[in-house]
Amino acid sequence: MKEKLTGLSAEEVKERLQRGEGGNGAERITKTEGQIIKENLFTLFNILNFLIAGLLFAVGAYSNMMFIAIIILNILIGIFQELKAKKLVDELSILNRPVIRVLRSGKEVKAEPDQVVKGDLMILESGNQICSDAVIVDGLLEVNESLLTGESDAVVKEKGAKLYSGSSVISGKAYARIIHVGNENYASKLANEVKREKQVQSELLGSMRRVTRFTSCLIIPLGIVLFLEAFFLRQASVNEAVVSSAAALLGMLPKGLVLLISVSLAAGVIRLAKMKILVQNIFSLETLAHVDTLCLDKTGTVTDGNLKVCAVIPMTEFPKGEADAMVQSYLAASDDNNATFQALKKIFSPKEVYRPVHKIPFSSKRKWGCVSFEGAGSIFVGAPEKLSGELSENLEQELEKGRRVVAVGYSGETWENDCELPAGIRPLYGIVLEDTIRRSAQETLEFFRKEGVDVKIISGDHIKTVSMIAKRAGLKRWRDAVDLSQQGETPDYDMLSQKYSIFARVTPKQKQELVKALKRQGHKVAMTGDGVNDLLALREADCSIAVADGSDASRQISQVVLLDSDFTNLPQVVMEGRKVIHNVTRTAQVFFIKTIYSVLVSLFCLLTNQPFPFIPI
Fold this sequence. Notes:
Blueprint: H1 10-18, H2 33-41, H3 44-58, H4 68-95, E1 100-104, E2 107-111, E3 121-125, E4 134-144, H5 146-149, E5 155-157, E6 162-163, E7 168-178, H6 186-193, H7 203-233, H8 238-252, H9 255-273, E8 277-279, H10 284-289, E9 293-297, H11 298-302, E10 303-314, H12 320-333, H13 339-347, E11 356-363, E12 368-373, E13 377-382, H14 384-387, H15 393-400, E14 404-411, E15 426-437, H16 441-450, E16 454-458, H17 463-473, E17 481-483, H18 493-499, E18 502-504, H19 508-520, E19 525-529, H20 535-540, E20 543-547, H21 552-557, E21 560-562, H22 570-608
Helix pairs in contact: 2-4, 3-8, 4-9, 7-8, 7-22, 8-22, 9-22, 18-19
């Protein structure tokens, strides 16, 4: 079969590119530079200040235009921060951009994602990222689709099976024909669902807008009346009338407060940047400070995606040195490199003691793998129920704790049949593994509990696995768990979100509905995630938090990006935000008093036909 696979020719690739059937570069969902500048420049507050500055410029009162420096500085702070964050996120995307191996004219070539076309034959092996939707035409793969589904278990893909962009290969080798590119890809479609503009939920920004809207209702009519009174009733010159009216109107706009908020938030963002925490919009710092519900994704957030061996249980009498040497030889010869085998290699250092003569790679479908050695028999690694028939009581107890169990068995014969196991496999070890919890996870969850923040863990994994990990991570309500796959087609999300803290077997749409339900109940919700399956929920949350080693799209749409991919840094973000809010609200009343004072003095001057007692400078 493999001999017949030649892939596309150079002429066919060129032709398809011209027909628009190539280019894997999906549209960016971050703001453009133009959008960032526009949003920071064209606000009602800025327009009113520039209008007054324009009038002062028109009458030559240049020295009274100094206030515009505050407005420009405020605009520059906002633009600079967002552009810097965008640049860093875009750089992360480029760094994580994979090179694709394709078969063309019978030869293997490397291509950038935007150089592949529909019909290209991808060559996929362990560790490769799947960048385009494809169908396997030859071979077998085990694929990790956790970034798409939230489930960490490997999925077996045989000939004819569909592969989705955003997933990655754990083991095996296959040739797959690309069927979608660019925005047609599954991952891109999910990302484009969240492309709509999301308004920043900021109480400081909201208060400023309310004040600006209120004063804007007064500024234009009051400004006209003050100018007409000065020019016609007091016979002032145009220059004097404009300067006097401008002074009254400028006092109503809390320019100092706007600058104070921007500088305070920008300083907080800079401090967090030193801790490897990227805040994409300065007002997001305030949003997270007000959060009362934090939704955590298990895979890649509470856990770090790695496994560790917590027990090696001898299953039968066998010379330990010889048994260890054979396991070491197995790991040295095996091509498998998933999280399980990486954990085993830390306990049994790979070492070529025996020479391998035949290998059967580990497969999740058959649940075992084998390496046969010259004159020494075969070592099998796989599920205990496959190798030894039934689990011992102590291994059953480990499974009840949400851990994983791998068995190592021995046969004296060379084994080449990958469809069935030999009779009489002698069990050597039962190896117990568990997910690695992020460092300081317990302290982080305890911090949120003391601060009154309700933590909920949402995952696509099995309910027992998720609840046991929550227990180990220190979540008090780890028993309050529910399997959403058992809740029918129309779950009562409002009831579920109130009653439970652990949600298992959750689909991307269900994550979004849970966040919506929490918001309906009046909660301020933060959502952490790393995969395409989290995008809908991240967009819906009041504050979205992504980890740097997650999917490209999750980084692009999130307000906060944890550059070292460690959620245990979140308390620093919350405390920094609360410190800034406390300092700003403590001094904000001074600026609001000035606004009220300016309005009252302006009305008094209007009624008594007196000039406003100050000038803008």
